[in-house]
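pinging the channel bc i need a second pair of eyes. not urgent but kinda urgent?? the chain im working w is below, pasted from the shared doc
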Amino acid sequence: MFDPKPPEDEVLLTAKVRAGFGVIPRYVSHGRQIYGQSLHPSEIKARLETAWLPYHEALAALLSEMHARFGYAVLLETHSMPKLPYTRPCDIVLGDVHGKSCNPDITELVEALLENRGYSIRRNTPYAGGYITQYYGRPEQNMHALQVEICRSLYLNSATLQPGGRV
């Protein structure tokens, strides 16, 4: 992805990075490459400094402000997911890192609210929560993070890419 190859001590080779879905993703869905040419390694530092760090600094500040104001903070990290290819598909997956990033009462409340609106819900399968949910979710400190994966077929016609559905 980078040419020349960046020094090994500058890249954290996680499983997601190896798979092409790190901070600077290499692929979109179905293994399609994002870039038609290699990127210069200076792109790593530039993107971290201009996008990743400011985003996380702002997010941390907001959560800290909410925690100071209310005694707790709840982060709902929302994503779009494809229709799941299971025999029992669902509309929304709630990921709380298997109870580690969010108080179960909060997860249960969100689940009940969504089910009352007619949505089918799964928990932690196949999305238990990624970096943001894992990093910011600290229920023992009253900092809760819940990942919410919404099936895009609820709001988008995938054939026409026009809004639609039932959200």
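so The beta strands are 73-81, 92-95, 121-123, 143-151, 156-157, 162-163. and The mean pLDDT is 92. — does that match what u expected or am i reading it wrong
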